[in-house]
Write a structure and sequence with these properties.
Number of strands of chain A: 11
Structural class of chain A: alpha/beta
Shape of chain B: elongated
Largest interface: A-B, 43 and 33 residues
Oligomer: heterodimer
Structural class of chain B: mainly alpha
Radius of gyration of chain A: 20 Å
Distance between the termini of chain B: 41 Å
Distance between the termini of chain A: 9 Å
Number of helices of chain B: 2
Number of strands of chain B: 0
Number of helices of chain A: 18
Strand order of the largest sheet of chain A: 4-6-5-10-11-9-7-8
Helix content of chain A: 25-40%
Radius of gyration of chain B: 18 Å
Largest sheet of chain A: 8 strands, mixed
Order of helices and strands of chain B: HH
Strand content of chain B: under 5%
Strand content of chain A: 5-15%
Helix content of chain B: 25-40%
Largest sheet of chain B: none
Chain lengths: 448, 51
């Protein structure tokens, strides 16, 4: 492979600033890899450049984003048939900010239909396939973002995370993914799924890369009323000697796959100050997350569900049907309980510590066949296993970072997840960076 | 319930749908202590006070 495409975003940006690299060479390195990899993994939907080069901290860095971030006058298909060819009237806040930072936008990336699926299947645009083994799922819904970054087709990508959609593809594809605090990044001009849960975050090759991307996109935006003015701490190389990590080793050993448990517990030992705690009630909080997600997604899609139901895939249609059956009182009570659960998480799980560590996905990654349209009766259980450890984070609204921390005996990535207090992205990224200084899992590449 | 909302449902789907929705109605240990005055917007305050 080209040496340039093997660089991290931080290394490439540094090289460009010092004029040791040329932006055109970076772009060509990515283009060559796209040509080789796209037929195998179907990560891109469209490879047409979507902006013009300009000067900035990310000047000349090739990125591409999930096909749900609107750009004025350009198509956002949202992974769907219903929005196929739809032209956006305005540009999303996140893309505006990346444009201001000078990043190149070299195309749109595959995704689950309307970001409503955890695997990366897509019957309208073709399944996205895992670069480590195309028989296996990429994770979703930011499937193309995970696959494109893993195959080094781009230096980073935006995804959205409503129930795990940044973290699942990051974990399954062996890249670093940041689920931001609810409100950290403006959602203006990004396709909505569930307004109480939707967040936008980067997938990239390292925690330091995610920090650079977060620095560009975070901050208050008057067009998204819940966007926060909280400052972002981006110094990833600050000392973490005093950092305390909570984890639930017995729960991990008893509930995660053996190889996954071993890799995650080994990764935890990089952090010297560890505290054993009782795990949060993942399943209860996940159920609450699903109540909110299903009710809000179905309300968002109500008119199309009345008029164009046949244009949804069966998997998405079934999920949307469920939201119409959730009682309003149940939905609102779950939202009323949300602050109490956030307070409990911070006061118990995170009492006296900075972060909580657990696997990103606790079960062996399933194949595309096992979880696709013909997956059979075992499929609901497989999907529940894949999403078990991500949705609870969205219900609490807190940030989480997923980092590769090993490979299983099939050669597929294993990932850990660090979860922090609201707006603790800086602490998460510093911890992730410290881990990646000691390990090289994030530098491994899938074989061509 | 879906018919009232003008959302068509294929034959045989209602029963499976009910199973899934019922599975989400879980007992919550914090429910009993939830103050009467709390509404969904208090969550925004909780985000800023729990940093």
């Amino acid at each position: 492979m080209s040496d340039l495409a093997a660089l991290t975003l931080a290394e490439a940006a540094h090289g460009l600033r010092r004029r040791e690299l040329a932006a055109e060479d970076l772009l060509q390195a990515c283009r060559r890899r796209i040509e080789r990899w796209q037929p195998r993994i179907n990560a891109f939907v469209d490879q047409e450049p979507r902006n013009s080069p300009r000067v900035g901290p990310l000047g000349g860095i090739p990125l591409a984003h999930k096909d749900m971030f609107y750009r004025a006058g350009r198509v956002s298909n949202c992974g769907s048939k219903i929005r196929k060819g739809w032209l956006a009237a305005e540009t999303s806040a996140a893309l505006e900010r990346l444009d201001l930072a000078g990043a190149l936008d070299i195309g749109t990336l595959n995704m689950s239909e309307f970001a409503y699926g955890p695997t990366g299947h897509n019957e309208h645009w073709g399944d996205c396939r895992n670069p480590w083994n195309p028989d296996y799922i990429t994770g979703g819904s930011s499937s193309g973002s995970g696959a494109a970054v893993a195959a080094r087709l781009v230096f980073g990508a935006l995804g959205s995370d409503t129930g795990g959609s940044v973290r699942l593809p990051a974990a399954a594809c062996g890249v670093t993914g940041l689920k931001t605090t609810w409100g950290r990044v403006s959602r203006h001009g990004a396709m909505p799924l569930s307004h109480s849960l939707d967040t936008i975050g980067p997938l990239a090759r390292s925690a330091a890369d995610c920090a650079l991307l977060l620095g560009a996109i975070a901050g208050h935006d008057r067009r998204d009323p819940i966007s926060s003015p909280e400052p972002v701490e981006l110094a990833v190389d600050r000392p973490i000697g005093s950092l305390k990590i909570a984890l639930s080793s017995a729960w991990i050993e008893g509930n995660a796959d053996r190889e996954i448990a071993a890799a995650v517990l080994a990764a935890s030992r990089i952090f010297k100050n560890r505290v054993e705690v009782e795990p949060p009630d993942f399943d209860l909080l996940s159920a609450h997350c699903l109540v909110v997600m299903q009710a809000e997604a179905s309300a968002q899609h109500a008119q199309w569900m009345r008029e164009r139901q046949a244009d949804y895939s069966s998997a998405v249609r079934v999920r949307l049907e469920a939201g119409f059956a959730i009682p309003a009182a149940q939905y609102l009570e779950v939202l009323r309980l949300r602050s109490a659960w956030l307070e409990r998480f911070c006061a118990t799980t995170l009492a006296g510590v900075d972060l909580y560590l657990l696997p990103a996905i606790a079960v062996p990654l399933p194949t595309r066949g096992e979880t696709g349209p013909h997956g059979g009766p075992a499929m609901p259980k497989l999907l529940a296993g894949v999403t078990r450890l991500t949705r609870w984070v969205n219900y609490l609204g807190v940030p989480a970072l997923v980092l590769p921390c090993g490979f299983d005996s099939r050669g597929l990535p294993i990932a850990m997840q660090l979860v922090g207090r609201p707006f603790a992205e800086g602490t998460l990224l510093a911890a992730g960076h410290a881990y990646q200084l000691e390990t090289d899992w994030h530098r491994r590449l899938p074989a061509e | 319930m879906l018919a009232v909302q003008d959302v068509p449902l294929a034959a045989g789907r209602a029963e499976r749908l009910a199973l899934g929705v019922n599975a989400l109605a879980v007992a919550d240990p914090l429910r009993a202590a939830l103050a009467f005055e709390v509404d969904a917007t208090t969550y925004l305050l909780a985000l800023s006070t729990n940093q």
